[in-house]
Design brief:
The complex is a heterodimer.
Chain A: E1 3-5, E2 10-14, E3 19-21, E4 24-26, E5 32-39, E6 46-52, E7 60-61, E8 64-69, E9 74-79, E10 88-97, E11 102-106, E12 110-115
Parallel strand pairs in A: 2-12
Antiparallel strand pairs in A: 1-4, 3-9, 5-6, 5-10, 7-8, 8-9, 10-11, 10-12
Chain B: E1 4-7, E2 10-13, E3 18-25, E4 31-37, E5 44-50, E6 53-57, E7 64-70, E8 73-79, E9 87-94, E10 105-106, E11 110-114
Parallel strand pairs in B: 2-11
Antiparallel strand pairs in B: 1-3, 3-8, 4-5, 4-9, 5-6, 7-8, 9-10, 9-11
The chains are: A mainly beta, B mainly beta.
């Protein structure tokens, strides 16, 4: 079975500072994908960044980067130069290819609060 | 309209009511998903449709009945729900069917309260 663990229920960061949100995963599959989503208070889940299990380089998307350490089974999200609009819930998720359907398994999320 | 839309955004219903949640995607995707998000719990995948065929049903009670009439529309029919079914129901869609790594795009969700 696949499992995603996010150990930080809440985080605070000052505006313009960088913050790291932790994510560890557990799977016996060799081929998988890791995603980060942002959920503002409005409810929709916004895709941020993706890392494939065979990707050799860490994924980056603008201010977001994914610190992928395969041996440790961790996929931490780094947000640089935090902005007030970054305040939201952040979810780490893993996709495993099942042969018939792709399933996303989510962690419990981290609530990030950006302060002045 | 662009992206993934869901209606209604909020729904309050009694345990004996019958209601339906609607999801529509304008992205040309061919896979659609229903998720349930309860307070302090991870998102739970409920159903997956790939090319309008249900390919995943995660032991969801029969009081939830999905319907996918075409690749752009997905419904979740509700009947005789329980208070513990109160949650945010999220719809998502993706390209490449259910077995690809393409990211899923989510709608804004329907906040359901069962009295």
């Amino acid at each position: 079975a696949q499992k995603i663990t996010q150990t930080q229920p809440g985080m605070f960061v000052q505006e313009k500072e960088a913050v790291t949100l932790d994510c560890t995963y557990d799977t016996s599959d060799q081929s998988y994908g890791l995603f980060w989503y942002k959920q503002p208070s409005s409810g929709e889940m916004i895709f941020l960044i993706y890392q494939g299990s065979y990707d050799e380089q860490n994924a980056t998307e603008g201010r977001y980067s994914l610190n992928f350490q395969k041996a440790r089974k961790s996929a931490n999200l780094v947000i640089s130069a935090s902005q007030l609009g970054d305040s939201a819930m952040y979810f780490c998720a893993m996709r495993v290819y099942t042969g018939t359907a792709s399933k996303l398994t989510f962690g419990t999320g981290t609530r990030l609060q950006v302060t002045l | 309209e662009t992206g993934v839309t869901q209606t209604p955004r909020h729904l309050v219903m009694g345990m004996t009511n019958k209601k339906s949640l609607k999801c529509e995607q304008h992205l040309g995707h061919n896979a659609m998903y229903w998720y349930k998000q309860s307070a302090k719990k991870p998102l739970e995948l409920m159903f997956v449709y790939s090319l309008e065929e249900r390919v995943e049903n995660n032991s969801v009670p029969s009081r939830f009945s999905p319907e996918c009439p075409n690749s752009s529309h997905l419904f979740l029919h509700l009947h005789t729900l329980q208070p513990e079914d109160s949650a945010l129901y999220l719809c998502a869609s993706s390209l490449g069917g259910g077995n690809s790594y393409n990211e899923q795009f989510f709608g804004p969700g329907t906040r359901l309260t069962v009295l």
